[in-house]
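Handout, section B. The chain below has 147 residues.
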Amino acid sequence: MPSTPEEIIHRLLDLLLAKETDAIADLWAEDGIAEFPFAAGTSPRLLTGRDEIRPYLGGLPELMDVREIPSITVHHTERPDTIVVEFTGTGSTVRTGEPYRLDYIVVLTVQDGLITCYRDYWSPLAAAAAAGTLPELLDSLHPETAR
């Protein structure tokens, strides 16, 4: 069972490639959080606890078919329970079949072998473009024009 932050992120990415979203959610502490500071539109900015994180993760395979994580860089911090991770995901979008490539920066904190904080600095514009949902994202930013 992985227990260090670096082991946890590698396990999480392996499970992402295997599309085992329930197992990814199980990596979180029961009251752990997933935070998305750059989220926009209808995307959540904060998920608290496995009960909120699990359904969010469960919807990812319907949007993206992530097939490879071609690069990953782990930066250790002064805190042994926290790392900063840069990685790239590639594959295709489910909606359009178009190629998908997205860069991520994650700050990950692990305590007692479980994720207590996962702060994901992804680009909502790049994600929406990759998923084929850019028009919906733009409409959600200006709801008065979506009518």
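Note. The first helix runs from residue 5 to 17. Compare this with the example in section A.
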